[in-house]
Write a structure and sequence with these properties.
mainly alpha, about 5% strand
Length: about 300
């Protein structure tokens, strides 16, 4: 068998072969994508144009919104374009680029959520030392570590895939380029590579999720001794974050914690962390957060007041 790479274009099988369903999905995803941009930009502008940017929680939330926008934009525009196309194709180069960027921004999101959990832990369990521990320098260092970790993860995924030989067929049973669907098309034994993918993606996501859950267990244990009012404030501070973590993390292990096999359900699971989580994050953080709502109200009311003059 020729072990060279003679595939220059991949065919994406997409979400459905029914054109009516594809049109319905296009309208739905277009609405979701607009909501993602409006919601996350609103949060970013409200934080950067107010004193909230000096608080670690909102400093991290600003980067989470940015990573949400970047992450969903690596897949959603291409997905919507393909839903209206007669033939859904992607070039080899664009496929590798999409693989790299999805894992890069997905990794940033995972690590930023971890940084936010650490901030929540320090705020509740070590309140007297909070300002010292969560200094501006420490927050910047955490963001740098998040980006470095995500880049390392993405490069390793990219290197595991870029050297695979693709001799045909070239049909990817998905709506974007990911590692497991590509491993199925490689004309070589991918068993060892699939194990490395499990370690690099599945275990990282699973271990991070378990660390987050343990941190929140410690937080809940700590606030038992708090007065009722303080307990309510502490729970309000972290409940939004817990909701976002569960929404983003729960589908990930189902896709990446197993050997190199794909299931039709993978497409639905992927929608959760590519479209649904980025769309709901702004709602979760604004509807349950009085500071965020006040900052948004003051900023936009001030803007309308200046326009009215």
């Amino acid at each position: 068998m020729d072990q060279g790479n003679n595939v220059t274009v991949f065919i994406l099988l997409g979400l459905s072969k029914n054109k009516n369903i594809e049109i319905l999905c296009f309208v739905l995803f277009l609405f979701c994508y607009i909501a993602i941009w409006v919601g996350n930009l609103l949060i970013m502008i409200s934080i950067m144009c107010s004193p909230l940017i000096e608080q670690p929680m909102y400093f991290f939330l600003n980067y989470l919104s940015l990573s949400d926008l970047c992450y969903t934009s690596t897949v959603t525009p291409e997905l919507m374009t393909d839903l209206l196309a007669e033939r859904q194709t992607i070039s080899y180069g664009n496929c590798m680029t999409q693989l790299f960027t999805t894992h890069l921004f997905g990794g940033v999101e995972i690590f930023v959520l971890t940084g936010m959990a650490y901030d929540c832990y320090v705020a509740i369990c070590k309140p007297l030392h909070y300002t010292v521990i969560m200094s501006s320098q420490r927050c910047n260092s955490i963001i740098t570590a998040c980006c470095t970790g995500a880049f390392t993860h993405s490069v390793s995924q990219f290197l595991l895939t870029i050297f695979l030989p693709f001799c045909g067929p070239n049909e990817i049973d998905h709506y974007f380029c990911d590692v497991y669907p590509l491993l199925k098309l490689a004309c070589t034994d991918t068993y060892r590579i699939s194990l490395l993918v499990v370690v690099n993606s599945g275990l990282i996501a699973l271990v991070t999720f378990l660390i987050l859950m343990v941190s929140y267990f410690v937080i809940l244990y700590t606030i038992r001794a708090y007065p009722a009012e303080s307990r309510t404030i502490a729970l309000s501070t972290c409940s939004s974050h817990i909701t976002v973590v569960v929404l983003f993390f729960v589908p990930v292990p189902f896709i990446y914690i197993r050997p190199a096999t794909t299931f039709p359900e993978d497409k639905m699971f992927a929608l959760f962390y590519i479209i649904i989580a980025p769309m709901f994050n702004p709602l979760i953080y604004t509807l349950r957060n009085m500071e965020m709502k006040n900052a948004m109200r003051k900023m936009w009311c001030h803007h309308l007041f200046l326009e009215g003059k």
